[in-house]
Design goal:
Elements: E1 2-7, E2 28-35, E3 41-43, E4 54-58, E5 66-72, E6 75-81, E7 86-89, E8 97-108, E9 111-122, E10 132-135, H1 144-156, E11 161-164, E12 177-178, E13 181-182, E14 185-187, E15 193-195, H2 196-208, E16 212-218, E17 221-222, E18 248-249, E19 259-261, H3 267-283, E20 288-292, H4 310-324, E21 329-335, H5 340-345, E22 352-355, H6 363-376, E23 383-386, E24 396-397, H7 400-413, E25 416-417, E26 435-436, H8 439-454, H9 456-460, E27 464-465, E28 469-472, E29 479-481, E30 489-496, E31 499-506, E32 528-536, E33 544-547, E34 557-559, E35 561-564, E36 567-575, E37 578-583
Parallel strand pairs: 1-2, 2-9, 10-11, 11-16, 16-20, 20-21, 21-22, 22-23, 23-25, 24-26, 29-30
Antiparallel strand pairs: 3-4, 4-7, 5-6, 5-8, 8-9, 12-13, 14-15, 17-19, 18-19, 27-30, 28-32, 30-31, 31-37, 32-36, 33-34, 33-37, 35-36
């Protein structure tokens, strides 16, 4: 006799319940799981070191039959009555583990109702499972209450690292020091007024939640007054062998300056900018340096006429920065994957950061990036995508189907998405906030980041891709192996230990195969209910589990199944954007 927990989907907001179809030859005791996600739960940190106590707060009122359950993957760590709206938990001591916390009501012996969920990450270092965000505005409008509100939302999404974009004074002189004094206010490259106090307040608030604060700067940018600040002519990059035309990045006329480029592999420049970074670390409590580049610029030359090997120079620059400040985190952007191998093979960057553009615009491009990064870093660097969805949209809400399908794919492939900050990111100029998040998107984003955090070990904990044959056994929808096809469900599979992890991603209604959803036209997916699925697998399967960020706050359920002649058959109750199936 198998003890099976069935998910019963679609019970929120008065929707009709639908029981999954059960294989006719299975005799089971069915525990029906429903949900009414009426409890909002928050934690006091975005990430916890092993041994730290987790503090929970909620807006709920426990009743006699309210319980709380802590899961790591499919394993239940503990399950106990819940008597207070605020409570604490001592997680196991293991490092690098994600947990799903489920608050539920035991309605009777056969029915449980999920009323709230939240993810918890217990990791000694944020780079084990990075969830990277950003801050891009630092003027006096960012009062302490505004900063607290922004950071509270980011903490709810478990963002554990924050990039400070265009926070600095000058690219070659980032710390706002003049006449040996820190400026209380100063202008950035766009001539916006920034406040040193606001920057410090952001760092302080982020550190309170366990987040890391990372300052942004190019590896090789200087302004037109750089000579006055000690930058030498011999350090520049040139478009010709005779050093007659400096390489430069054009910016609007009303900005402070265009950006001129120096050789990141030049040792004298490395020493110069490392000294400037020393100023930054002395006056601001930053935890590291987000290094930027500008992609493949073609043939460029040093002052002496030598052709520059930019990827090799990037590696040299990273190693020099790490040598000068070994206790600080380093991250370097690989624009369109340019230089990614050299960057990651240094072993000195905390994660794999890829800014994707038109040449990596397909959903399958994301797969290729993650696969390459895993190879270059030997599986040590987790991928973070700087990828701008709805790029051509302006002064409107983000298109939720485009955002959620993109996040579903990125998370299922083992990556994460740099998109959350003091607004949601839509352009490469981070301060630009042309698109806004609807309340519905905010609610769904929280569920997706809970899922990314709670199931981080299944999603990002290693393992090997496997080409399991996953097929539909009825006419409701067709399933194909990755890469995705319009009009079908794409399956992507990974083997981790004794578990087969199968991701089903819904492209049935997709109007394109680009994650960019440039004009915001991606339609909401057609929801597939009670889909009969068969998986060809030779291992003896003992359990089949299902979880989705689209239903029940990601709560896990066990499905009935039949295994015969090397095939496992089961029924998927609902598929909206993304379901994760685990064969144990």
């Amino acid at each position: 006799m198998l003890l099976i927990a069935f998910l019963t989907f679609g019970c929120r907001n008065g929707e009709q319940k639908e029981e999954p179809q059960k294989p006719s030859n299975q005799v089971t005791k069915v525990i029906t799981v429903t949900s009414d996600l009426c409890w909002d739960i928050v934690t006091d940190k975005a990430i916890y070191a092993p041994g730290q106590t987790v503090h929970f707060q909620s807006n709920g009122t426990p009743t006699e039959n309210t319980k709380v359950r802590y899961r790591s993957g499919s394993a239940i760590i503990s399950d106990a009555p819940l008597t207070e709206a605020e409570w604490t938990w001592e997680p196991p001591s293991q490092d690098g583990v994600g947990y799903l916390v489920e608050v539920y009501r035991q309605k009777n012996d056969s029915v449980q109702q999920i009323i709230g969920t939240i993810g918890v990450d217990v990791s000694s270092d944020w780079h084990l499972f990075p969830r990277y965000g950003f801050i891009a505005t630092f003027d006096k409008s960012k009062t302490k209450s505004v900063i607290a509100s922004e950071t509270e939302f980011l903490n709810r999404c478990h963002i554990n690292g924050m990039q400070f974009q265009d926070w600095h004074y000058k690219h070659h002189w980032p710390c706002p020091i003049k006449n040996n004094q820190i400026l209380s206010e100063f202008t950035d490259i766009a001539n916006r007024t920034n406040s040193s106090e606001v920057i410090r307040n952001y760092i302080e608030e982020q550190h309170r939640y366990g987040m890391k604060s990372i300052f942004y700067n190019l590896a090789f940018g200087v302004l037109d007054d750089a000579k006055n600040d000690g930058v030498k002519e011999e350090w520049y990059i040139f478009q010709d062998k005779n050093h007659s035309q400096k390489d430069w990045h054009d910016l609007p006329d009303n900005w402070k300056s265009d950006i001129y480029l120096v050789d990141p592999g030049n040792e004298a420049w490395q020493n110069y900018i490392a000294d400037r970074n020393e100023d930054v670390y002395q006056h601001f409590a930053f935890d590291g340096y987000q290094i930027d580049q500008l992609g493949n610029r073609g043939d460029r030359y040093t002052y002496s006429g030598q052709k520059i090997n930019a990827p090799k120079a990037y590696a040299s620059f990273i190693n020099a920065m790490k040598k000068r400040h070994p206790d600080k985190d380093l991250i370097m952007n690989a624009v369109s994957s340019f230089g990614s191998q050299n960057i990651l093979e240094t072993g000195n960057t905390m994660l794999a950061y890829n800014e994707c553009w038109w040449d990596e615009a397909e959903f399958n491009s994301l797969y290729n990036v993650v696969k390459a990064n895993n190879a270059y870093s030997r599986g040590k660097a987790k991928t973070v995508f700087a990828a701008y969805v709805n790029y051509e949209c302006d002064r409107c809400d983000f298109n939720m189907p485009g955002v959620l399908l993109t996040d579903a794919v990125m998370f299922a492939l083992g990556g994460s998405h740099l998109e959350l900050g003091d607004h949601m990111l839509c352009r490469e100029y981070f301060p630009y906030a042309g698109c806004t998040m609807s309340s519905a998107l905010k609610e769904n984003i929280i569920r997706y980041y809970d899922f990314l955090t709670a199931y981080e070990n299944l999603l990002r904990g290693g393992g090997d891709e496997e080409k399991l044959v996953v097929t539909s056994q009825d006419s409701k929808a067709a399933i194909n192996q990755w890469p995705p096809k319009q009009g079908k469900i794409a399956s992507f599979c990974r083997k981790q230990g004794n578990e087969h992890v199968i991701h089903l991603l819904n492209f049935i209604s997709a109007d394109q195969l680009s994650w960019r959803d440039m004009k915001g036209t991606m339609p909401a997916p057609r929801v597939v209910k009670n889909l009969s699925v068969q998986v060809t697998v030779t291992d003896k399967i003992s359990h089949v589990y299902l979880a989705s960020p689209d239903y029940h706050g990601g709560a896990l359920a066990e499905l009935t199944f039949e295994q015969k002649d090397g095939k496992v058959s089961f029924c998927i109750p609902n598929l909206k954007y993304w379901d994760m199936i685990v064969l144990n």
